[in-house]
Automatic annotation (TrEMBL), chain A:
Keywords, in A-Z order: Coiled coil, Protein transport, Transport
GO cellular-component term (any): early endosome
Gene3D superfamilies: Arfaptin homology (AH) domain/BAR domain, Phox-like domain
Family: Belongs to the sorting nexin family.
InterPro entries: AH/BAR_dom_sf, PX_dom, PX_dom_sf, Vps5_C
Domain (PX) ranges: 75-196
Signal peptide as annotated in the record: none
Gene Ontology molecular function, alphabetical: phosphatidylinositol binding
Originating species: Oncorhynchus kisutch
Residue ranges the record marks as coiled coil: 381-408
Top-rank taxon: Eukaryota
Pfam families: PX (PF00787), Vps5 (PF09325)
Protein name: Sorting nexin 7
SUPFAM superfamilies, per the entry: BAR/IMD domain-like, PX domain
UniProtKB/TrEMBL annotation, chain B:
Coiled coil: 353-380
InterPro entries noted in UniProt: AH/BAR_dom_sf, PX_dom, PX_dom_sf, PX_SNX4, SNX4, SNX4_BAR
Molecular function in Gene Ontology: phosphatidylinositol-3-phosphate binding
Keywords on record: Coiled coil, Protein transport, Transport
Annotated organism of origin: Oncorhynchus kisutch (Coho salmon)
Similarity remark: Belongs to the sorting nexin family.
Pfam families: PX
One cellular-component annotation, GO: SNARE complex
The protein's name: Sorting nexin 4
PROSITE patterns from the UniProt entry: PX
Spans traversing the lipid bilayer: none
Length: 443, 435
């Protein structure tokens, strides 16, 4: 199996890869490979992603025009988001980020692209992806701005957090076998600023989007009658999950707050020992030692708080957003199903109509126009049947897609979260360990 | 918290001046005696075993609830191990009375402090409630500590009133009052007055006073901040308990992650719960510091007494100088300073020779008495300084030792807290890895 990327670290696995893999998307043994590779380039995101797609419909894979060679390879596209810069125009000030892409995919003309994008561009991309694949799960974007207000937009920390989230977003899209094939995605990565603006203007206008929204609302009002069991289960799960994640988010923020207050007090604690050592002779040494240790504790606690804020809080937050996304996806799925059901009802009525021998306006009309009644009826039947068949197909396809996407993401979640948590815990541990060392020095 | 029962010497209370040679001798003698077990603590096991609530009528004939403490004593002897100890009940006010008696009777001794009457400098878990069981328990320990300190003090342990406090139930109060110690107590006003007007206090005492002021300030600040830190730490730990709850709830809806989450949740709960023990232990450390905080009062009392005796000495000496001058005037007939006598004699004529002679005689007598008084006061002051300084040295050693130990055990405590933390998080990490 040839690899199209040079900088490969030799895999740690020992199993041989079966020769007939070309038809299949991925192999579980690739995990080690992916992991090692990704770590090198600090794009740790899609590690386990591929492993969790057991039953991917082969047809969908082919849609993405993957070359056979690339199937067994690890990532063939690398994206980084960095270097935020502030731009001032007459109307507004905004931040752009540099998006760097390196790829070997054939659909891209070059192998490297460097463009600058602003948050609105990301929003646009997300919107397009969701429109095109309304039942797939698109990773959430960071929020528009922090609650505190306009000023916060240009705060250093906020920008950094957003940058990281944007980076993650693009990489997730890149990892997704369907989404990454999107034309919009490609344009986003490669077009120059003015090209992008032009491109954006194409596409369904405002009115057609309105129409879609109206339909969606109408469908949701109508409701779903026979939602399949599994989706109900997923719905419930998502509800609960969203609750839990929300709680965890709150708890973590509370912990950060408490830690900060603890730190405040601790900062005052150390100096009192120093003060005391001034009055003592014999005990001065020990007291100074204690003061020193407390100061080191302060530093460690500060680090810990920082780490929590940087790592756990954003992740939890992301998943809160994910939960929201999931809910939206489910809703859309429901809408589709509602449409399906509506159409089915229409189908039923039409069938009835068709089978009815009774005179009806269309029939009469047809005869007036000189058509053969039988023919007219048949034509209509065919037309109706055709419509119905189309609809059915579409809906089935959609449902399949939903299910697949859902499972994929869930598996991905679980493991990713785990590794994130693992990181967090080791941070805690290292903090505690350092504490221990320093305290031992007290003796 | 048993104080070391190897004191430097037993101060002899009396009017004899001790030369340094004699002091050394005393040390040797008392060392020998101690080996025989004169320190009360060696002879007796003392413990404050229990606390109980009682109701009764107080001095204004109102019902009140108060706590009494059971004092148990038993001679330390291999043969009497199995014998049940003697016991009696005492309430806090009786301890106070005992201490006041000791303060007055042995003003040169740095008398150990009693535990707090009311709960101050607490952190949020403990309300300032005298009836709170934790507070009562800590007070019980404090009272026991007090008794041990007194019983192992080379001077105080021999006091009869103390002994009776421990052993006789009835009439102890009357006995204390009979000693008339209250009359001996120096009025506060006198002491403050002396503190201002004394001219030549021993430099060491002045230093000591400053030190005890500093120590008091530092310790009270330290204890306050520590209480706030403990409060915050408590908060941090307890919020982690919320993690435990949410994790459990969450694990119910997860399949692969369920087990991992569940166990992680348990660890979080354990972590949150562990803070109670940790802070309980820290209270012990705080109590040790508090004892020394309260000791500063005793230190200052000794300094005050010194200032008082020094002042009295100075007064007496001044008085003597005055009288000498008067005599001189009388003898030489010159009036160098304004005096009523001088004026009246000017106005009403000179005195007769006999009158003068009579006055001289009186003055001579007064002079003799004065000189005696000065000598007495001198020895009193010197004596006080010596004995007090001995006890202060003893106290300093005790303080250094105790505080060193307290700091070390505090450090050990913190280490074990960290170790527990490590354990919990390591376990949690494993659980997370299994998810």
């Amino acid at each position: 199996m040839s690899r199209t990327i040079d900088a490969v670290v030799s895999p740690t696995q020992t199993n041989t890869i079966p020769a007939d893999i070309s038809g299949q998307m991925l192999d579980l043994d690739e995990d080690d490979d992916l992991e090692v590779f990704s770590k090198d380039l600090t794009l740790a995101d899609g590690n386990m992603f591929n492993a969790s797609m057991p039953t991917s419909p082969g047809s969908m894979v082919n849609q993405c025009k993957f070359e056979e060679d690339e199937e067994s390879d690890s990532k063939d596209i690398f994206i980084t988001v960095d270097n935020p810069e502030s731009h001032v125009t007459a109307i507004e000030t905004f931040i752009t980020y540099r998006v760097l892409t390196k790829t070997t995919r054939s659909e891209f003309d070059n192998s490297e692209y460097e463009v600058r994008r602003r948050y609105q561009d990301f929003l646009w991309l997300k919107g397009k992806l969701e429109d095109a694949h309304s039942t797939l799960i698109v990773h959430p974007l960071p929020e528009k701005f922090v609650v505190k207000g306009m000023v916060e937009r240009f705060n250093g920390d906020f920008i950094e957090t957003r940058r990281k989230a944007l980076h993650k977003f693009l990489n997730r899209v890149a990892d997704h076998p369907i989404l990454s094939c999107s034309e919009d995605f490609k344009v986003f990565l490669s077009a120059q600023a003015w090209e992008l603006t032009t491109y954006k203007k194409q596409g369904p206008g405002f009115l057609s989007r309105m129409g879609e929204t109206v339909r969606a609302v109408a469908n949701s009002v109508r409701g779903v009658k026979n939602r399949p069991e599994e989706f109900t289960a997923i719905q419930e799960y998502v509800e609960d999950f969203s609750n839990k994640i929300g709680s965890l988010d709150k708890v973590t923020q509370r912990i950060v707050k408490e830690q900060k207050e603890y730190l405040e007090e601790l900062k005052e604690y150390g100096p009192t020992y120093t003060l005391w050592s001034g009055s003592e002779e014999e005990l001065a040494e020990q007291l100074k030692g204690v003061a020193g240790c407390i100061e080191r504790c302060c530093k460690e606690t500060e680090e810990q708080v920082g780490h929590l804020s940087d790592t756990l809080v954003p992740v939890l937050h992301e998943y809160v957003l994910c939960a929201e996304t999931l809910k939206a996806v489910l809703r859309r799925r429901d809408n589709i199903q509602a449409e399906f059901e509506a159409k089915n009802e229409a189908l039923a009525t039409k069938k009835v109509d068709r089978d009815a021998e009774s005179s009806d306006l269309g029939f009469v009309w047809g005869s007036l126009l000189g058509k053969n009644p039988e023919e007219a009826r048949h034509q209509r039947q065919e037309r109706l049947d055709g419509e119905i068949e189309e609809l059915k197909e579409e809906i089935d396809k959609l449902e399949d897609r939903v299910e697949w996407a859902n499972n994929a993401l869930k598996g991905d979640w679980g493991r990713w979260q785990r590794s994130m948590r693992g990181d967090l815990k080791s941070a805690f541990l290292s903090t505690a360990e350092k504490n221990v060392d320093y305290y031992e020095k007290k003796r | 918290m048993m104080a070391d029962s190897g004191p430097k010497e037993v101060a002899v209370i009396g009017n004899t001046e001790l030369t340094s040679a004699e002091l050394d001798n005393n040390i040797i003698n008392t060392m020998v005696e101690i080996e025989k077990g004169t320190s009360l603590l060696r002879k007796m096991e003392i413990s404050v075993a229990e606390a109980e609530k009682r109701t009764g009528k107080n001095t204004v004939n109102m019902q009140e609830i108060y706590t009494v403490y059971l004092i148990e004593t038993r001679p330390v002897d291999a043969l009497t191990e199995g014998i049940t100890p003697d016991s009696l009940w005492r309430r806090y006010s009786e301890f106070e009375l005992l201490r006041n008696y000791l303060l007055v009777t042995y003003p040169f001794v740095v008398v150990a402090p009693l535990p707090e009457k009311r709960a101050e400098i607490v952190w949020h878990k403990l309300s300032a409630d005298n009836m709170d069981p934790d507070f009562v328990e800590r007070r019980r320990v404090g009272l026991e500590n007090f008794l041990h300190r007194v019983a192992s003090h080379p001077v105080l342990c021999n006091d009869n009133i103390f002994y009776i406090f421990l052993t006789e139930d009835k009439d102890w109060k009357e006995m204390v009052y009979e000693t008339g110690f209250q009359a001996k107590a120096d009025s506060r006003l006198k002491a403050v007055n002396a503190a201002f007007r004394v001219k030549n206090p021993d430099g060491r005492f002045t230093e000591l006073k400053h030190y005890s002021d500093e120590l008091q300030t530092v310790l009270s600040q330290l204890l306050r901040v520590r209480a706030r830190v403990a409060d915050r730490l408590y908060g941090v730990y307890k919020v982690h308990g919320n993690y435990g709850r949410v994790f459990s709830e969450w694990s119910a809806i997860e399949k692969e992650m369920g087990d991992g989450l569940q166990s992680a949740g348990h660890h979080m709960d354990a972590y949150a719960a562990s803070v109670d023990d940790i802070l309980e232990e820290e209270e012990h450390y705080a109590d040790q510091l508090k004892e020394y905080l309260f000791y500063t009062d005793a230190l200052r009392a000794v300094c005050r007494k010194h200032e008082l005796t020094q002042f009295e000495l100075e007064m007496v000496a001044l008085d003597l100088a005055c009288k000498k001058q008067q005599k001189e005037e009388l003898v030489t007939g010159t009036v160098r300073t304004f005096s009523l006598k001088g004026m009246t004699s000017k106005l009403f004529g000179q005195e007769t020779a006999e009158q003068r002679e009579a006055k001289l005689q009186v003055l001579e007598q007064q002079l003799k008495e004065g000189e005696e008084a000065v000598k007495e006061k001198n020895t009193e002051t010197d004596e006080f300084v010596k004995t007090a300084w001995v006890d202060i040295e003893r106290f300093k050693d005790q303080k250094d030792r105790d505080l060193k130990e307290a700091l070390i055990s505090y450090a050990v405590m913190q280490i074990s807290m960290c170790k527990k933390g490590i354990q919990v998080w390591t376990n949690a990490k494993e659980c997370f890895n299994k998810m």
